[in-house]
UniProtKB/TrEMBL annotation:
Subcellular localization: Nucleus
Segments of skewed composition (Polar residues): 93-107, 574-600
Domain Xylanolytic transcriptional activator regulatory residue range list: 282-356
Any Gene Ontology CC annotation: nucleus
Top-level lineage group: Eukaryota
Region (Disordered), start-end ranges: 93-115, 561-600
InterPro entries: prtT (IPR051089), XnlR_reg_dom (IPR007219)
KW Coiled coil (keyword) present: no
Keyword Transcription: yes
Name of the protein in question: Xylanolytic transcriptional activator regulatory domain-containing protein
PANTHER family linked to this entry: FINGER DOMAIN PROTEIN, PUTATIVE-RELATED (PTHR31845), ZN(II)2CYS6 TRANSCRIPTION FACTOR (EUROFUNG) (PTHR31845:SF17)
Amino acid sequence: MAKRSWSDANEGMEFMTVGPLSPLLCPLRNMLTGHGKPQLITAGNGEQSFPQISRKIKAYNEAVLQDIENLHNTLKEVSKKVGLPEPAALQCSALQKSAESPSQPTRSVHGVSGNGYRLGVSVQDNHGPSCDNSPKISPEDENLPHVPIHSLYALTKLRALRSPDAPEGHSSPARDDFISRGALQLEDAERLFRLYRDRLDAFMYGVGCKYQQLEELRRKSPILTAATLTVAALHDPQSNSLYGICSSEFRTLTERSMFDRRVNRDYLRAMCVASYWLSDVSWMLSGYAIRRAAECNLHNSYTRAIEEKSEEAADGARLWYILNICDQHLATLYGRPAIVQEDSSMQQWESFLKSPVSTEEDKRLASQVALLGIIGSIRELFGPDKGQPTPRAYVHQITHFSKQLDHWIKHWSETLPEQYQHIGRFPRKGALLHFHFAKLHLYSHIFRGLSGDSPIPHHFLDCAASAISVATSTIDFIITDPDVAAGVVGMPSYLHCMTAFACMFLIKVAVKYGGDLVEPQRVWGLTTDLVRHFRSLPAGRWHLANLMAPGLERMVATLKPGQSGEPGHHHSHVQTVNTGDRLNTNGVIDAQLSGSNTDGTLMGPEGEFFFDYDMSFGLSPVFQFDMSSLNTNTQTMTGQDFTQVDYQTTRPVT
């Protein structure tokens, strides 16, 4: 016999109502008695049932909560105006959100951190990791698992083991960012956004920002807003006081989102923007972004773009390419292994270019992917620097890689269009710049292990001469070519680091080997011209060009010509020698170093010696910047005034 429902068992019995809803809580008190069970009350005309009262109570509570939130927001604005700290967050709002969440409500224990912020600790935190409430499955329900983690997830349902969904088109219901809070004025934000959209984004192949209006960008992604405005402030000489505000907001949002289960496409876009331009956080964010992108299956976007001809998948493939480019750049700069190895999308970029979803900008992107394939092979051959000389047998491999680079520049010089929107002729010139730096990176390996007075082996003399030629021509190219000279404001941080590398290389070689490989006076002239050019650029105070200039000046001071017109040396650091042909009987070039005496002007901020004569050409301590130690207040650097610069038309004078 089937079990009867309550209504069947009480057929004909009317659910009694109570008086009107006034005062509000009295009917609820009257209806709940004893153990909280509904009590049947005599109904009358105009009176309301229990469900009706429940709905009205809920509506009333929501209205009260909305009024309180409005008052709280007004109080926050008033506190800002008068300089008082912001009031604490509303507890009732948090309770309402937790009640509306499908998960079980949690009770929070609040404390105060050392920074004065309130901490919310869920009592469920002690109950272990969260699990999915998925249907139980048996072994025969599914095919064999594709990867081992699927098996563990099937048994445990641990939510952290599965890839999160990445909702697209997500927008915040209420805009609450550093612009709405008044930390950054709207007109300043609009100006920075236009600078990024109309100028800077083209340097990253147009991948960084797909929005045309700041309003839409703010609504879609606060973290992408902060990232793009930070990069724009870095490049804008009028925004020295704004860079710290934007950078702090971006760092805060990044820290808060580090353990978020879900990230969307724009979040990964923000990580790309930061990894591409912000040298102080690029190493950390690049690796993190690659992990999060893989969680969102971004590495398979390349295949989907080709097979499905999907624009959305093509956008994902471009982001994955950018992340790989940043990864390879950083591996080169730091001499460390790249995170992504043997990726099919990086090896088969031709197929992506042939697909219907490919654009003209994708040619530039593919040129970088192809170049980094060669550079990756160079890194794989030489490996990390262990302080040992490069084997003589590597002469043939160096020649082979040099020919590959020659073929690369020939192909892309003919393939890339001469003119691009927003950045003019820079793409072709930028490809040539990348080519020069790749050659310098290749040839510089022959100086490994040449510590102290170790001479350059005769079988590497041609490579050494080629390295000098490439380094000098590269610096001259940056100074004299108008497109590259203007592109210094906008190019990625990788190119600035490689510029520092070229300068350090020339100065070290000039000091150690004198005029046998390069005239010190020539190096002094090139470097001082480069410093002069950097100081003339319309760039922000914290731009790498402005940060590099003082360090370059200190380094090149060792080569400053004396009154006799010959390069002078500080005290007894470098011996005065004849700069004629100094090949010894073994066909090698000897070093010109003196004893261990050093000049205090060549000491770094922590006592390290600027010239490390093992000829290791990584980034010198003088070029390693801790941005957190910089004063990003409203004080500006002394120098030229660039407040009237037009980024679209003005190029720095060379």
